[in-house]
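Thread title: Can someone regenerate the structure for this chain?

I was given the following input by a collaborator and told the matching C-alpha coordinates would be attached. They weren't. Posting the sequence so someone can regenerate them.
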Amino acid sequence: MSGDRHRYLFIRILEACNADCFMCEFALSRDSYRFTVDDFAELLPQAVEAGVGYVRFTGGEPLMHRQVVQLVEAGTAAGMRMSLITNGFQLPQMVDALAAAGLAQIVVSIDGSSGATHDVYRRTPGCFDRALEGLRAAGAADILTRVNTVAGPHNYEQLPELQRVLTEAGVSQWELSALKLERTITYPSREDVLRVCDPVYTGDPEQVLVPLGKRFFGDTPEEQDAFFDQGVTPRASLPLCYVTDDVIYLDPKQGRAFGCSCLPHRDGDGPGGAPLRDEQGRVFLDSPSLRKHAELFRTEGPRVCNGCSTTAAGYSDDMARLGAVPAWHY
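Best answer:
Regenerated them for you:
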Protein backbone atom coordinates (compact mmCIF):
# COMPACT_ATOMS: atom_id res chain seq x y z
CA MET A 1 0.00 0.00 0.00
CA SER A 2 1.20 3.51 -0.79
CA GLY A 3 0.44 6.37 1.58
CA ASP A 4 -3.04 6.16 3.09
CA ARG A 5 -4.63 4.14 0.27
CA HIS A 6 -6.60 1.10 1.28
CA ARG A 7 -5.89 -2.16 -0.50
CA TYR A 8 -8.32 -4.46 -2.28
CA LEU A 9 -8.49 -8.12 -1.27
CA PHE A 10 -10.17 -10.53 -3.70
CA ILE A 11 -11.06 -14.00 -2.40
CA ARG A 12 -12.30 -16.86 -4.57
CA ILE A 13 -14.69 -18.44 -2.07
CA LEU A 14 -15.80 -21.33 -4.29
CA GLU A 15 -15.55 -22.67 -7.82
CA ALA A 16 -19.06 -24.07 -8.19
CA CYS A 17 -21.37 -22.22 -10.56
CA ASN A 18 -24.99 -22.49 -11.70
CA ALA A 19 -24.40 -20.96 -15.15
CA ASP A 20 -22.81 -22.33 -18.31
CA CYS A 21 -21.12 -19.25 -19.76
CA PHE A 22 -19.21 -20.08 -22.93
CA MET A 23 -16.18 -17.97 -21.93
CA CYS A 24 -15.76 -19.25 -18.36
CA GLU A 25 -13.63 -22.07 -16.99
CA PHE A 26 -16.05 -22.60 -14.10
CA ALA A 27 -19.08 -23.22 -16.32
CA LEU A 28 -21.49 -25.52 -14.49
CA SER A 29 -18.72 -26.59 -12.09
CA ARG A 30 -19.90 -28.70 -9.18
CA ASP A 31 -16.65 -28.40 -7.26
CA SER A 32 -17.23 -28.93 -3.53
CA TYR A 33 -14.60 -26.51 -2.15
CA ARG A 34 -15.91 -23.71 0.09
CA PHE A 35 -13.98 -20.93 1.84
CA THR A 36 -15.46 -20.94 5.35
CA VAL A 37 -16.29 -18.36 8.01
CA ASP A 38 -13.49 -19.86 10.10
CA ASP A 39 -11.07 -19.42 7.18
CA PHE A 40 -12.10 -15.77 6.96
CA ALA A 41 -11.73 -15.25 10.70
CA GLU A 42 -8.14 -16.51 10.44
CA LEU A 43 -7.45 -14.22 7.51
CA LEU A 44 -9.06 -10.97 8.71
CA PRO A 45 -6.39 -9.88 11.24
CA GLN A 46 -3.77 -10.25 8.50
CA ALA A 47 -5.95 -8.26 6.13
CA VAL A 48 -6.31 -5.44 8.65
CA GLU A 49 -2.55 -5.42 9.25
CA ALA A 50 -1.90 -5.35 5.49
CA GLY A 51 -4.04 -2.23 5.09
CA VAL A 52 -6.96 -3.90 3.31
CA GLY A 53 -10.09 -1.76 3.27
CA TYR A 54 -12.10 -3.46 0.50
CA VAL A 55 -12.90 -7.16 0.13
CA ARG A 56 -14.56 -8.71 -2.90
CA PHE A 57 -15.75 -12.32 -3.02
CA THR A 58 -15.43 -14.04 -6.38
CA GLY A 59 -16.08 -17.53 -7.70
CA GLY A 60 -17.57 -19.52 -9.32
CA GLU A 61 -20.86 -18.09 -8.19
CA PRO A 62 -20.61 -16.62 -4.66
CA LEU A 63 -24.37 -16.64 -4.10
CA MET A 64 -24.27 -20.45 -4.21
CA HIS A 65 -22.15 -20.35 -1.03
CA ARG A 66 -24.43 -21.17 1.92
CA GLN A 67 -22.38 -18.99 4.28
CA VAL A 68 -22.02 -15.98 1.99
CA VAL A 69 -24.21 -13.75 4.19
CA GLN A 70 -22.21 -14.71 7.28
CA LEU A 71 -18.98 -14.03 5.40
CA VAL A 72 -20.20 -10.55 4.48
CA GLU A 73 -21.21 -9.95 8.11
CA ALA A 74 -17.78 -11.02 9.35
CA GLY A 75 -15.96 -8.70 6.98
CA THR A 76 -18.25 -5.78 7.80
CA ALA A 77 -17.72 -6.34 11.53
CA ALA A 78 -13.96 -6.17 10.95
CA GLY A 79 -14.32 -2.75 9.31
CA MET A 80 -14.07 -3.92 5.70
CA ARG A 81 -16.18 -2.58 2.85
CA MET A 82 -17.61 -5.76 1.37
CA SER A 83 -18.36 -6.59 -2.28
CA LEU A 84 -19.14 -9.65 -4.34
CA ILE A 85 -19.43 -10.51 -8.01
CA THR A 86 -22.33 -12.65 -9.23
CA ASN A 87 -24.24 -13.68 -12.33
CA GLY A 88 -27.29 -12.28 -10.54
CA PHE A 89 -29.60 -15.26 -10.94
CA GLN A 90 -30.12 -15.67 -7.19
CA LEU A 91 -29.74 -12.00 -6.34
CA PRO A 92 -33.40 -10.92 -6.10
CA GLN A 93 -34.16 -13.25 -3.20
CA MET A 94 -30.88 -12.50 -1.41
CA VAL A 95 -30.62 -8.72 -1.62
CA ASP A 96 -32.30 -7.99 1.71
CA ALA A 97 -30.09 -10.40 3.65
CA LEU A 98 -26.93 -9.13 1.98
CA ALA A 99 -27.89 -5.52 2.67
CA ALA A 100 -28.58 -6.32 6.32
CA ALA A 101 -25.16 -8.01 6.50
CA GLY A 102 -23.53 -4.77 5.36
CA LEU A 103 -22.74 -5.48 1.71
CA ALA A 104 -21.38 -2.25 0.23
CA GLN A 105 -21.14 -3.15 -3.46
CA ILE A 106 -22.66 -5.75 -5.79
CA VAL A 107 -21.06 -6.57 -9.15
CA VAL A 108 -23.30 -8.35 -11.66
CA SER A 109 -22.06 -9.86 -14.92
CA ILE A 110 -24.25 -8.91 -17.90
CA ASP A 111 -23.07 -9.48 -21.47
CA GLY A 112 -26.11 -8.91 -23.66
CA SER A 113 -28.60 -6.08 -24.00
CA SER A 114 -31.63 -8.36 -23.53
CA GLY A 115 -32.56 -11.81 -22.32
CA ALA A 116 -32.65 -12.94 -25.93
CA THR A 117 -28.86 -12.55 -26.13
CA HIS A 118 -27.49 -12.53 -22.58
CA ASP A 119 -29.30 -15.72 -21.58
CA VAL A 120 -27.86 -17.47 -24.64
CA TYR A 121 -24.30 -16.40 -23.75
CA ARG A 122 -24.86 -17.55 -20.15
CA ARG A 123 -26.89 -20.56 -21.27
CA THR A 124 -29.15 -19.77 -18.31
CA PRO A 125 -32.77 -18.89 -19.15
CA GLY A 126 -34.13 -15.97 -17.13
CA CYS A 127 -30.70 -14.76 -15.99
CA PHE A 128 -30.94 -11.32 -17.63
CA ASP A 129 -34.29 -10.40 -16.09
CA ARG A 130 -33.30 -11.70 -12.66
CA ALA A 131 -29.97 -9.85 -12.78
CA LEU A 132 -31.68 -6.54 -13.59
CA GLU A 133 -34.30 -7.15 -10.90
CA GLY A 134 -31.53 -7.80 -8.38
CA LEU A 135 -29.61 -4.69 -9.42
CA ARG A 136 -32.65 -2.47 -8.98
CA ALA A 137 -33.35 -3.99 -5.56
CA ALA A 138 -29.73 -3.57 -4.53
CA GLY A 139 -29.72 0.07 -5.55
CA ALA A 140 -32.90 0.64 -3.55
CA ALA A 141 -31.13 -0.92 -0.55
CA ASP A 142 -28.24 1.58 -0.89
CA ILE A 143 -25.79 -1.02 -2.19
CA LEU A 144 -23.46 0.40 -4.85
CA THR A 145 -24.34 -1.35 -8.12
CA ARG A 146 -21.90 -2.28 -10.86
CA VAL A 147 -22.12 -4.34 -14.03
CA ASN A 148 -19.20 -6.18 -15.59
CA THR A 149 -19.50 -6.90 -19.30
CA VAL A 150 -17.22 -9.10 -21.40
CA ALA A 151 -17.13 -7.56 -24.88
CA GLY A 152 -16.24 -9.44 -28.04
CA PRO A 153 -17.27 -10.03 -31.65
CA HIS A 154 -20.42 -11.71 -30.39
CA ASN A 155 -21.86 -8.65 -28.63
CA TYR A 156 -20.03 -5.39 -29.36
CA GLU A 157 -22.90 -4.17 -31.55
CA GLN A 158 -25.23 -4.44 -28.53
CA LEU A 159 -23.16 -2.20 -26.25
CA PRO A 160 -24.97 1.08 -27.01
CA GLU A 161 -28.30 -0.56 -26.21
CA LEU A 162 -26.87 -2.20 -23.09
CA GLN A 163 -25.62 1.23 -22.01
CA ARG A 164 -29.18 2.52 -22.31
CA VAL A 165 -30.61 -0.41 -20.35
CA LEU A 166 -28.10 -0.06 -17.51
CA THR A 167 -28.56 3.71 -17.36
CA GLU A 168 -32.32 3.31 -17.08
CA ALA A 169 -31.84 0.67 -14.36
CA GLY A 170 -29.86 3.15 -12.30
CA VAL A 171 -26.61 1.16 -12.30
CA SER A 172 -23.75 3.20 -10.81
CA GLN A 173 -20.65 1.64 -12.41
CA TRP A 174 -19.82 -0.35 -15.54
CA GLU A 175 -16.71 -2.33 -16.38
CA LEU A 176 -16.38 -3.22 -20.05
CA SER A 177 -13.48 -5.63 -20.65
CA ALA A 178 -12.40 -7.62 -23.67
CA LEU A 179 -13.24 -11.26 -24.22
CA LYS A 180 -10.18 -13.44 -23.59
CA LEU A 181 -10.02 -17.00 -24.92
CA GLU A 182 -7.20 -19.45 -25.63
CA ARG A 183 -7.38 -18.64 -29.32
CA THR A 184 -7.14 -15.61 -31.57
CA ILE A 185 -10.25 -13.45 -31.48
CA THR A 186 -10.99 -11.78 -34.81
CA TYR A 187 -13.31 -8.81 -35.27
CA PRO A 188 -14.99 -8.30 -38.65
CA SER A 189 -13.78 -4.70 -38.85
CA ARG A 190 -11.70 -2.49 -36.58
CA GLU A 191 -13.46 0.53 -38.04
CA ASP A 192 -16.87 -0.90 -37.20
CA VAL A 193 -15.89 -1.61 -33.59
CA LEU A 194 -14.68 1.98 -33.21
CA ARG A 195 -17.79 3.37 -34.91
CA VAL A 196 -20.16 1.42 -32.66
CA CYS A 197 -18.27 1.49 -29.38
CA ASP A 198 -16.37 4.75 -29.16
CA PRO A 199 -19.57 6.75 -28.51
CA VAL A 200 -20.21 4.49 -25.51
CA TYR A 201 -17.11 5.97 -23.88
CA THR A 202 -17.58 9.58 -24.97
CA GLY A 203 -21.15 10.02 -23.75
CA ASP A 204 -22.02 12.64 -21.13
CA PRO A 205 -21.65 10.94 -17.71
CA GLU A 206 -24.43 13.17 -16.43
CA GLN A 207 -26.77 11.54 -18.94
CA VAL A 208 -25.52 7.98 -19.49
CA LEU A 209 -23.50 5.35 -17.67
CA VAL A 210 -19.93 5.55 -19.02
CA PRO A 211 -17.58 2.56 -18.53
CA LEU A 212 -14.71 2.70 -16.05
CA GLY A 213 -11.07 2.50 -17.08
CA LYS A 214 -9.70 2.19 -20.58
CA ARG A 215 -11.62 1.32 -23.73
CA PHE A 216 -11.72 -2.47 -24.10
CA PHE A 217 -10.02 -2.09 -27.50
CA GLY A 218 -7.49 0.51 -26.30
CA ASP A 219 -7.38 4.26 -25.92
CA THR A 220 -4.38 5.03 -28.12
CA PRO A 221 -3.55 4.01 -31.71
CA GLU A 222 -0.71 1.88 -30.33
CA GLU A 223 -3.03 0.04 -27.93
CA GLN A 224 -5.58 -0.46 -30.71
CA ASP A 225 -2.93 -1.88 -33.04
CA ALA A 226 -1.86 -4.32 -30.34
CA PHE A 227 -5.48 -5.30 -29.65
CA PHE A 228 -6.75 -5.80 -33.18
CA ASP A 229 -3.52 -7.09 -34.75
CA GLN A 230 -2.07 -9.17 -31.92
CA GLY A 231 -4.93 -9.79 -29.49
CA VAL A 232 -3.16 -7.93 -26.66
CA THR A 233 -5.69 -6.31 -24.36
CA PRO A 234 -4.98 -2.76 -23.11
CA ARG A 235 -2.71 -2.86 -20.09
CA ALA A 236 -1.04 -0.51 -17.63
CA SER A 237 1.13 2.06 -19.36
CA LEU A 238 4.89 2.13 -18.94
CA PRO A 239 6.88 2.31 -16.81
CA LEU A 240 5.04 0.61 -13.89
CA CYS A 241 1.80 -1.19 -13.00
CA TYR A 242 0.54 0.32 -9.76
CA VAL A 243 -2.23 -2.25 -9.29
CA THR A 244 0.21 -4.59 -7.57
CA ASP A 245 0.70 -1.98 -4.82
CA ASP A 246 -2.95 -2.13 -3.85
CA VAL A 247 -4.39 -5.54 -4.78
CA ILE A 248 -4.11 -9.05 -3.36
CA TYR A 249 -6.01 -11.93 -4.96
CA LEU A 250 -6.42 -15.17 -3.04
CA ASP A 251 -7.23 -18.63 -4.35
CA PRO A 252 -7.54 -20.44 -1.00
CA LYS A 253 -8.35 -23.81 -2.56
CA GLN A 254 -4.99 -23.78 -4.32
CA GLY A 255 -3.29 -22.03 -1.40
CA ARG A 256 -1.99 -19.26 -3.66
CA ALA A 257 -1.88 -15.45 -3.49
CA PHE A 258 -1.42 -13.07 -6.43
CA GLY A 259 -0.55 -9.40 -6.87
CA CYS A 260 -3.50 -8.68 -9.19
CA SER A 261 -6.94 -10.16 -9.81
CA CYS A 262 -6.02 -10.81 -13.46
CA LEU A 263 -2.89 -12.85 -12.75
CA PRO A 264 -4.52 -16.12 -11.60
CA HIS A 265 -6.04 -16.36 -15.09
CA ARG A 266 -2.75 -15.51 -16.77
CA ASP A 267 -0.22 -17.78 -15.11
CA GLY A 268 -0.38 -21.02 -17.09
CA ASP A 269 3.11 -22.33 -16.31
CA GLY A 270 2.99 -23.89 -12.88
CA PRO A 271 0.96 -22.65 -9.92
CA GLY A 272 1.89 -18.97 -10.28
CA GLY A 273 1.65 -16.40 -7.54
CA ALA A 274 2.99 -17.14 -4.07
CA PRO A 275 2.06 -19.50 -1.22
CA LEU A 276 -0.76 -18.20 0.97
CA ARG A 277 0.70 -19.84 4.08
CA ASP A 278 4.21 -19.89 5.51
CA GLU A 279 6.13 -23.03 6.43
CA GLN A 280 4.33 -23.19 9.78
CA GLY A 281 0.95 -23.16 8.03
CA ARG A 282 0.09 -19.60 9.06
CA VAL A 283 -1.66 -17.21 6.69
CA PHE A 284 0.80 -14.51 5.65
CA LEU A 285 -0.64 -12.01 3.19
CA ASP A 286 2.46 -9.86 2.76
CA SER A 287 5.04 -12.60 2.56
CA PRO A 288 8.39 -11.95 0.88
CA SER A 289 7.42 -14.38 -1.90
CA LEU A 290 4.19 -12.48 -2.61
CA ARG A 291 6.01 -9.15 -2.67
CA LYS A 292 8.61 -10.62 -5.03
CA HIS A 293 5.85 -11.89 -7.30
CA ALA A 294 4.02 -8.55 -7.16
CA GLU A 295 7.18 -6.56 -7.83
CA LEU A 296 7.88 -8.66 -10.93
CA PHE A 297 4.55 -7.67 -12.46
CA ARG A 298 4.82 -4.12 -11.15
CA THR A 299 7.88 -3.63 -13.34
CA GLU A 300 7.23 -6.10 -16.17
CA GLY A 301 3.43 -6.10 -16.38
CA PRO A 302 3.22 -3.13 -18.77
CA ARG A 303 5.47 -5.09 -21.14
CA VAL A 304 4.33 -8.70 -20.79
CA CYS A 305 0.75 -8.92 -19.50
CA ASN A 306 -1.92 -10.10 -21.92
CA GLY A 307 -5.26 -10.37 -20.18
CA CYS A 308 -5.41 -7.13 -18.22
CA SER A 309 -8.86 -5.75 -17.40
CA THR A 310 -9.84 -2.26 -18.43
CA THR A 311 -10.35 -1.25 -14.80
CA ALA A 312 -6.93 -2.56 -13.77
CA ALA A 313 -5.22 -0.74 -16.64
CA GLY A 314 -7.18 2.43 -15.95
CA TYR A 315 -6.52 2.21 -12.20
CA SER A 316 -2.78 2.02 -12.78
CA ASP A 317 -2.73 4.88 -15.27
CA ASP A 318 -4.90 7.08 -13.05
CA MET A 319 -2.66 6.33 -10.07
CA ALA A 320 0.41 7.29 -12.09
CA ARG A 321 -1.22 10.47 -13.34
CA LEU A 322 -3.26 11.60 -10.33
CA GLY A 323 -1.76 9.79 -7.34
CA ALA A 324 -5.21 8.58 -6.25
CA VAL A 325 -8.18 6.63 -7.55
CA PRO A 326 -11.76 6.84 -6.20
CA ALA A 327 -13.02 3.94 -4.10
CA TRP A 328 -14.39 0.95 -6.00
CA HIS A 329 -12.84 2.07 -9.31
CA TYR A 330 -11.02 -1.25 -9.45
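The mean pLDDT is 93.
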